[in-house]
Every structure is written in structure tokens, then in C-alpha cells.
Amino acid sequence: MDDGSGRLVGIALWDSEGAATAARPALMAEVGNDPFATWDEHPVDGLRGDVR
């Protein structure tokens, strides 16, 4: 959480798109009770792509 802007920042790095897809069910089980409705009150800044 950025105290200045109130922005919540999350970073995930995966070896491959397949690895990220395979992990999705377990990850979603862990965050099932997180306050997504509150977090989604503001537009999501999303960046996707390769890390080089």
C-alpha cells in the first residue's frame, strides 16, 4: 500500500504464462475473502508483458 496515494500495488513474476495459469486456482482460493469491491472502486492500472 502506498501511503501517499492510497494505491495498492501487487507484483507477480512467473516463469511462463502456463505457470501463471496453473497457479490461478490456488491463488484465487487464498484471496477469496479479500475486499475486491473496495479495491475496485478506482480504475485498475494494469501492466502486462515480458520482464527483460
Overall mean pLDDT score?
80
Give me the count of strands.
Answer: 0
What string gives the helices and strands in order? Answer: HH
The geometry reads as globular
> What proportion of the residues is helical, as a percent range?
25-40%
How many individual helices?
2
Q: Tell me the fraction of residues in β-strands, as a range.
A: under 5%
Uncertain segments: none
Distance between the termini: 25 Å
Walkthrough of the structure:
The structure is a single chain. Helices cover 35% and strands 0% of the residues. The radius of gyration is 13 Å and the shape is globular. It has 2 helices and no strands. By secondary structure, it is mostly helical.
Quick rundown:
The chain has helices spanning 17-30, 36-39.
